[in-house]
Amino acid sequence: MPSRHDIVTFHDPPVPPGASPWVDGAGPSPDVAVVAADPAWPDLFEEVAARVREALGWRALVVEHVGSTAVPGLPAKPVIDVDLVVADPADEASYVPALEARGFVLRVREPWWFEHRLLRGTSPTSHVHVFGPDSPEVVKHRIFRDWLRGNPDERERYAAAKLAASAASSAAGEHGMQYNARKEQVVRAIYARAFAATGLA
Question: Which end of the chain has fewer CB within 10 Å, C or N?
């Protein structure tokens, strides 16, 4: 289990010199459009989760719907975010080929950030974030999701930040990472209140 300190700390390690998180020429998405909440998103998650579980069986320790599409009523980019926990994310041979056989494509490899990997799926569009059992990111994502589900004022605050960031990034021709940076201050303020409410900070 991750420590309380790691859960409440935002780990932003720099990319090591000469390294890139992007696999085979991939890069950040140019699509920063945020759309109205779709009540079908939970069902689409179940489709993605079923494919992941069928591919990995018991190797999928956790398959969880996270991110904005996991919060009813919250506008979002129409991408289903999934946290997948496996025993060892660095052991790509134990899960990547099986997921690729089900249509997912490895796009991101970040061994310097809790061994994070990201695989992209289509029909529906999805991002499967792979972490290990000790990663604090999985706990963070669940706390953020549940806090937004349970606090309508925070949900509205985040929705406003997302829509403003999307509009500004679209106007500037920015990509997804820059969109994320535009709303980061609001995200971290929401996290701070959630951590305080849960007793973690």
Answer: N
53, 63 Cβ separation under 8 angstroms: yes
% of the chain with per-residue pLDDT over 90: 97
Secondary structure element (H or E) that encloses residue 136, with its range: helix 136-150
Per-residue pLDDT of 36-65, as tens digits, reads 999 999 999 999 999 999 999 999 999 999
Residue 175: Cβ within 10 Å count = 15
